[in-house]
What does this fold into?
Amino acid sequence: MPGNIPDIVIGRLPLYLRALTRLAVEGQEVTSSHELGRRLGISSAQIRKDLSHFGGFGKQGTGYHIAYLVDQLRQVLKVDQEWEVAVIGAGDLGTALLHYKGFSDRGFRIACVFDNSPQKIGKNIGEYVIHPIDEMQKIIQERGIKIAMIAVPAEKAQEVANKLIEVGVRAILNYAPMTLNVPSEVKVQYIDPVVQMQRMTFYLT
Amino acid sequence: MPGNIPDIVIGRLPLYLRALTRLAVEGQEVTSSHELGRRLGISSAQIRKDLSHFGGFGKQGTGYHIAYLVDQLRQVLKVDQEWEVAVIGAGDLGTALLHYKGFSDRGFRIACVFDNSPQKIGKNIGEYVIHPIDEMQKIIQERGIKIAMIAVPAEKAQEVANKLIEVGVRAILNYAPMTLNVPSEVKVQYIDPVVQMQRMTFYLT
DNA sequence: TAGATTGTTAATCGATTAACAATC
DNA sequence: TAGATTGTTAATCGATTAACAATC
It folds into this structure.
């Protein structure tokens, strides 16, 4: 199925899931493509079209049962399980990621953290011990970890990525401000706050 | 000019700028749409088309002079100046943002930080003093700040955004995991690492 | 039943790519 | 000159939207 579904559709599903979860927390049980669209700034037609790639989740006349749709979307996105994630880099950003409480109920759990600084190796951050980067490949391979977050300086990011891919990592969230070169079977997502701010300044007067 | 240029084109310019800056650091003086495209995983035709919206920056047969193109892109994106940015929320994430050194040479400077916790107000983070959130509107208005980063819990994000917009903020980088409701003259960009990871798990076997 | 909303088809809209004349 | 690469046009491709029959 993945083969014929546009990536741009997959990209919106997590937003639907997030908004639906929020509606559920607010105590609502049923919603419609119109209501969801209004909340997300997306047309109702697009939401129905997107969802229709995966099946008929709604009922004519009434809409979508939120708990059911959440469950289905979790299955589609494969976050009805908990993925172990490795964090590379224990600077300010790595530390913030380790402290972040928002991963666990959305399908992810940070499993380990690595850094190359002798001052940091062996130290604790919350419940985590910082491992030396030399042990990165061994540990990731042993645990079968498929997802990593790169929070190292830009100059080291490509090298780290290569090593991760070598031992089976297939999804990388890259916080380093540079484009990574990876084989086609590896997915990369980027977070660079400066890029996102530069996308807005153009519109400022 | 902004009116007729697709937003998706604007979205790629910061990536071009970032890659070009990197090439310059590596000591290169000239590049081509092919080389840039290879680095970014974008077709050369698309790069030429995107740039052509703003003028002819290259020379047939030779390509683009990097320093010149960097300069032009900075002007287009309006990051040939330094924008003051307000940070709302001084938790782990806010702290990481305040410590981050990568803003200043790309057009931004954090000007002030706000939090509502009595334990944090008045404390220092690096060179910054944490201001009470009650002073947020006054300070932002006085300084004429147009850009803010929201790093508060999801439940508070909409309220904070409303207050920011009230006093003139026109660009928001939202780290809270929720979609904001804003008037059309305000730009919002989102950073939610979980959303980005959920965009990759779909493709994992 | 009357009203509401889905899932889907066809039409529209917009973005990407291919190709090439111009020219450095 | 020969080779390379731009800027631009036209063709292709893909995504969004409008509309509506089906039906809860």
Q: What stands out?
A: Chain B has eight helices and ten strands. The first helix of chain B runs from residue 7 to 25.
